[in-house]
Design brief:
The protein is an alpha/beta fold. Helices cover 59% and strands 9% of the residues. It has 21 helices and 8 strands. It binds guanosine-5'-triphosphate and magnesium ion. Magnesium ion (MG) binds next to α6.
Amino acid sequence: MFDALSERLHDVLGRLTGRGRVTEADVDAAMREVRLALLEADVNFRVVKDFVARVRQRAIGAQVLDSLNAGQQVVKIVHEELTALLGAGDRSLHLSGSPAVLVLVGLQGSGKTTTAAKLARHLVRQGRRPLLVAADPYRPAAVEQLVALGRSLELPVHQAPTGTPVVEIARGGVAEARRSGRDTVIVDTAGRLNVDAALMAEISALEAAVHPAETLLVVDAMIGQEAVAIAEAFRAAVPVTGLVLTKIDGDARGGAALSISAVTGLAVKFMGTGEKMDGLEVFHPDRLAGRILGMGDVVTLAERAQETFDAQQQAKLAEKLRRNAFTLEDFLEQMQQLKKMGPVDQLLGMIPGMGGLAKQAQGAVDGGEMKCIEAIIQAMTPAERREPAILNGSRRRRIATGSGTSLPDVNRLVKQFGEMQKLMKQLGTAGRRGALPLSR
Ligand SMILES: Nc1nc2c(ncn2[C@@H]2O[C@H](COP(=O)(O)OP(=O)(O)OP(=O)(O)O)[C@@H](O)[C@H]2O)c(=O)[nH]1
Ligand SMILES: [Mg+2]
């Protein structure tokens, strides 16, 4: 979502760090461009004005411009101010009460049901035992959607016959959670087309009945500044405790996401980054600021790697690397694990300086290069995977046919793997612990 903005800011700030001395005029020129970039990204104009003024004031400050690394210091100031902008409000997730009740509200199609299930999955990983509650009395299909998601996560879903009042469904859910020893109740409510009196009354009644620890407003970040207006309208009418911004993975300009907290005072607590159940991220303003400025987000990347990669398996691999016994089979396994971590462009975008490469790499995946490698390795016999040296001409031709690729494809992979092995051997003899880039 922040690609265009990110590219521009990266350019502007790169020029600033690239020079020896930075003058006040340089800062002003850079700030003019930052201002334009933010406005073009659809950030609220008042927010932009304040932001640029604050950065300028701090950057012009005496010590900054006199220092040798003035450019870098200005970038640091931009990063800090961007973090502050993104991180307004209380971002912690409150889970008091037994059970703790979380209610998701929002307009139609904003992503409430999807987020309810993602949030349940997230909380399970934190060791909690959530119960999902389908509080949509109007559309049986909406209930079914949550039930299906619950099933895929192996989590219970409380439901009631169509027409049951929302308050009653929610109360029933809380009672059900107490009975079955569930410590968290996530209530998915029905969406409306507009912010209307009936919707607000329903949410107020819900608040009074089940005293939620959190009432999270789910907003679609794709709708731009409209999202900010919706959040303001909700906050004015009901006690919203935080925001979930969904569809951050979309191609909108992203400015709404940047300004929503600063304008409404409501903290963003989570971001939806995909349709699938793993597409939910805890909102970390500093990390997002880093990603936007093209400084990467290594922390999130490392966390994702830890989540995906099995520690024991990693230890075994490291050992194999040390003994130089890493085979094509291991390579295949690594590749499959890497894919589980998420889209390649998202992953690379988190590595400092790799933002530009990300698109290219995703192109390779979309273009089927990764699939091609997989198919080639799968077409090999176990002996060939362990000992690529035995791959003579006729074996290679057989593999090319078997994998639906070509002989040059097979040759390239074998050659690349050979080079990788050589490199690892060097690392090994250098006395370093062999480790894949992503293992600890
Ligand atoms: N790409 C992307 N799609 C999302 C995200 N969150 C939700 N969606 C999609 O948005 C659509 C609507 O999501 P729902 O969860 O059904 O929205 P809802 O708010 O429950 O909708 P109603 O119950 O009809 O009001 C679905 O197609 C979801 O897959 C996200 O973070 N990224
Ligand atoms: Mg729904």
